[in-house]
Specification:
- It is a single chain.
- The chain is mainly alpha-helical and 287 residues long.
- The chain contains 14 helices and no strands.
- It has one domain.
- It is globular, with a radius of gyration of 18 Å.
- It starts with a helix and ends with a helix.
- About 2% of the residues have low confidence.
């Protein structure tokens, strides 16, 4: 696969902007080359193309940005989680183990169905359908939870998470998050929707979704990135490095924006975006 610096930078920009927006960065990674066409369309038409590995590399840059934004929180969670093994439990350790539990289903299902998902990744129409479904989910969840969400209380994030998301619910959210293995379904959107359905405020639900995104992205990176260093993919390293820098910067900026956004705003604009882009893409690729 020929992957130029310009293509890598553009892809990194799209990846960074969409990774933590509830609009599916993976879906955009499929739809963008298909819409542009030409040599770009070759990225996804071959199920064995290294393009998927390239996009995961760009996801890794997003994971680094995500960790840096929440580094103090993550250090506290990891430390408390380890300390809880000796019996000293607190709110931070409870949140940590809920994140671990919620990550297990998507990790297991991702490994089991890897080949099927890789083949589906090469189908723009499928991504368009899933993006439309994603928009429907966001819209419906906002409608049914607008009168039940708790008041904002950013200082109470850990308490709200542990009170509203039991271990059983964490497992359910983990399976729900597995839907994001389908390009077009947003991991962040599904996780936040689950939090809203449990009565969390938009601020706390987005907080839990931000935290839950990191283990999955980091795990996928560790699992797939070794393929990038195979001899046949050596020509991709330079462009991917350039794209990763762009992805990191855009992800950092988008997280900063979204943290502020969900203090007072809703998922409606993202739902409308997914419905419009998804529907237009279905019409485009169904013909």
């Amino acid at each position: 696969m020929e992957f130029t610096y310009a293509q890598a930078i553009i892809t990194g920009f799209i990846q960074g902007v969409t990774e933590l927006f509830p609009v599916s960065s993976l879906g955009h990674a499929v739809l963008m080359p298909a819409w542009i066409g030409g040599q770009w369309s070759n990225f996804t038409t071959d199920a064995n193309s290294p393009y998927l590995v390239a996009t995961i590399a760009l996801h890794s840059a997003s994971a680094i940005a995500l960790f840096l934004v929440f580094r103090k929180r993550w250090f506290a969670l990891i430390f408390s989680g380890i300390r809880s093994l000796s019996g000293r439990r607190d709110l931070e350790s409870a949140v940590f183990w809920r994140l671990v539990i919620a990550t297990i289903p998507v990790a297991v299902l991702g490994v089991i169905f890897e080949e099927n998902l890789r083949e589906l990744f090469s189908k723009p129409l499928a991504s368009a359908v899933f993006l439309t479904i994603n928009g429907c989910v966001l819209f419906i969840v906002e409608r049914i939870t607008r009168s039940t969400a708790r008041p904002e209380g950013i200082s109470e994030e850990n308490k709200n998470i542990t009170e509203s998301i039991s271990v059983k619910n964490a497992i359910a959210i983990g399976f729900g998050q597995s839907l994001a293995l389908f390009a077009g379904i947003s991991r962040f959107g599904i996780s936040m929707s689950a939090g809203l359905l449990r009565g969390l405020s938009h601020s706390t639900a987005s907080d839990f979704a931000f935290l839950l995104a990191l283990p999955v992205i980091a795990g996928a990176s560790l699992y797939k990135l070794p393929e990038l260093f195979q001899a046949e993919n050596s020509q991709l390293l330079g462009p991917i490095l350039a794209g990763s820098v762009v992805s990191f910067l855009c992800t950092y900026a988008s997280i900063t924006f979204l943290v502020r956004w969900f203090k007072t705003r809703t998922l409606y604009p993202f739902a409308i975006y997914c419905l419009v882009v998804g529907a237009i893409s279905i019409i485009r690729f169904a013909s």
